[in-house]
Amino acid sequence: MIRKNNCIFLSIGCTLLLAGCSMSISEPSSSGTANSSGSAVFNSERIIELQEKSPTGAAVRKGYSIIKTANSFDPEKFVEAGGSVVSESNFRDGYKYFLIKTERDDIQFRSAVRNMDGVLYAQPDYSIESPKTYEGSSRGKGYRKPKNLLPFGTGDGNLQDDPEAEKLDWGLTVTHALEAFKQYDAHDAVNTVLAAIIDTGINGKHVDFYDGADNSVIFYAKASMAYGSPSPLTSLQIVPIDDNWDNHGHGTHCSGTIAAVGNNGKGICGVSHANTKLISYRGMDVSGGDTHATYSCLGDLAAIVTELRKEPGTRDLTVLSGLPQEVIDFPKLTQATVPVNMSFGGLAMSPYEVEMLNKALAAGVLPVIAMGNDGKTVANFPAALQGVLAVGATTMNDTRAYFSDGGTWMSVCAPGEAIYSCSNGGTNWANSVSPDVKNTYRWMSGTSMATPFVTGTIAYLLSIDPTLSPYRIKTVLERTADKIDSRSSYGQYDARGYSKWYGYGRVNVLNAAKAVQEKSVPQAGSVYSEKAVKISVQKSGTAQQEMRVWVYEKRTGVCASCGFTDAKGNVSFYGLRSDTEYEIGINAGGTYHTYNLTPSNDSDTEYTFSI
Predict the structure, then answer these.
(1) Could you check whether the bond before residue 382 is cis, i.e. omega within 30 degrees of 0?
(2) What is the pLDDT of residues 448-464, one digit of tens each?
(3) Is 462 part of any domain?
(4) What's the CATH number where 90 sits?
(5) Which residues contact 59 (CB under 8 A, 6 or more apart)?
(6) Do both 341 and 469 map to the same domain?
(7) Which of 1, 259, 512, 519 could, after both became Cys, cross-link 480 (CB 3.0–4.6 A)?
């Protein structure tokens, strides 16, 4: 996982120490704003102040700003203010999103453009430093034999045709995935499924991403950064699916855990090892990344999935421009959930991040997020937001990995220690004829490694039943997880069966697949509401756009989500718990307005703040 503001790329040893502002969920009392109980609350002006006070060259990428404007805005105005357009994105939502580079002071530039007609917000672009990796070798360096998990694989499991996995895998064994494969692969797990990942890209030359007919499992690949460089592209670029744009290896490693082809006589076996079409975005680089590059990928994914949910003849082909013909002609997507693996986050939320996340959730894209590697209870965003699925890491001994963060927002945990998966070729990554690019593997540890295991599990479940909604899938994973390590202080599960260090437990692929195949999945809305919470902000009948709207759990005071109203003054929230009371809040001119609600299972909840 990559994190901004004291950030980490969530592979062990991949520490990204980005000093900067941490965004608290309460503001100083000097602001003069308070809620009904008298406690201090968030304020959008305070957020801007905290962001702008980040140390130069640390959390904020010097010289760059992310700006949202009306669709009719003339970008020449940025030039007049001393900026130049690096990138422009249009997600077909009535707005434009720009990455602007300036030579003058960033704060002064953003202050100037915020006063321009048609500008909705201007925020810093947070930088992400280069990840470092924990490595081993094919001889087992960094690997130790797990307790009570031998032999690797079941007696007639499918790893016999995946020689590297047969020698070295443990995750598929401890989660009972091999037993699920034996029971359901032939007749049940047969539907084609889309799964996505935003990371450092993918090595499209690796043999484990090709099936027996030499067809690539990569559906399409795109990049927001140039080949071999962190330089931002003017717009997202199509990457040939048989090319290697991953100059780090983290993305390729995670992709292998999700969808490396099984039973092909080669390498390893991904959790969703057949019938999976993988979407890969390169939004990070060996030398780092930034908020704009990473989250633009998520917005683009949401836009493409939205088009794929239409009949081929009715799609907006400009959204699909340049993609492989297989994508353009893909039958109407009826898969209710498209999981996207995201191993990054930070201590703060910014408008651009939140907007792209909400676009994804609205499109039926479920972000699967790594918890973090501090080994503490610390709120990282977006993992701490409701509506996503946050994942912790476990060891070969079926206990908590020492580096795995805890928190009440964790959903489940999964194998994340000494994971053996596909390599980008290491130092030979750019040598297209090097055997290292096609045939090598590597070790990594971290919640980054646990997250794709869960993403792969979701894809596998969808191959059994593609109609499962994001929150039914989340519920079935939680209900079928194993309550591991119950005798330790970490495994102290409460009356709900929940531990802040394990969530609802370590995923059990067999139990989850059985529940899906037998259609014993909890009903929609029984745990997480399938309906939206729609909030409108109006002043004297006029829509108030780009108002920050906060969602707190009423009982705990935890910030569950946040959003920004659109041109019509509306914002929607997804995936809130149906048994929890929430406080919705806005700050209007120094006055904090609140509304209490418990999400409905029957219909969307709508409320208008009249200020």
Answers:
(1) yes
(2) 999 999 999 999 999 99
(3) yes
(4) 3.30.70.260
(5) 4, 5, 18, 19, 20, 21, 124, 126, 127
(6) yes
(7) 512
* Beta-carbon contacts of residue 30 (< 8 Å; ≥ 6 apart): none
Average pLDDT estimate for 409-424: 94
Radius of gyration, alpha carbons of the chain? 23
Q: Which residues contact 446 (CB under 8 A, 6 or more apart)?
A: 1, 10, 11, 12, 14, 134, 343, 370, 373, 393, 403, 416
Model pLDDT, residue 195: 98
The number of distinct structural domains making up the chain is 3
Chain mean pLDDT for the chain: 85
Q: Which two three-digit tokens encode residue 11?
A: 């592979």
Question: Is the CB of residue 36 less than 8 Å from the CB of residue 482?
Answer: no
For the stretch 541-582, pLDDT in tens is: 999 988 889 898 888 777 788 888 887 899 999 989 998 999
Residue 195, beta-bridge partner list: 278
H or E element at residue 470: helix 470-480
Tokens 């010097």, residue located = 62
Summarised one tens digit per residue, pLDDT across range 212-234 is 889 999 999 999 999 999 889 99
DSSP structure class, residue 505: -
Quick check: is 40 in a domain? no
Give the side-chain half-sphere CA count within 13 A for 165.
Answer: 31
Tokens 């139990």 correspond to what residue?
Answer: 511
- CA 117 to CA 362: how far, in whole Å? 28
By C-alpha distance, which of 300, 302, 305, 326 is closest to 315?
Answer: 305
User: What digits encode the pLDDT tens for the residues 425-447?
Assistant: 999 999 988 999 999 999 999 99
| 366 φ/ψ angles, rounded to the nearest 5 degrees | -100, 110
Partner residues linked to 326 by β-bridges = none
Give the percent of the chain with pLDDT over 90.
Answer: 60
Residue 342 has pLDDT above 70, yes or no: yes
Average pLDDT (200-205) is 97
Per the structure, the complete domain to which residue 103 belongs is given by 55-128
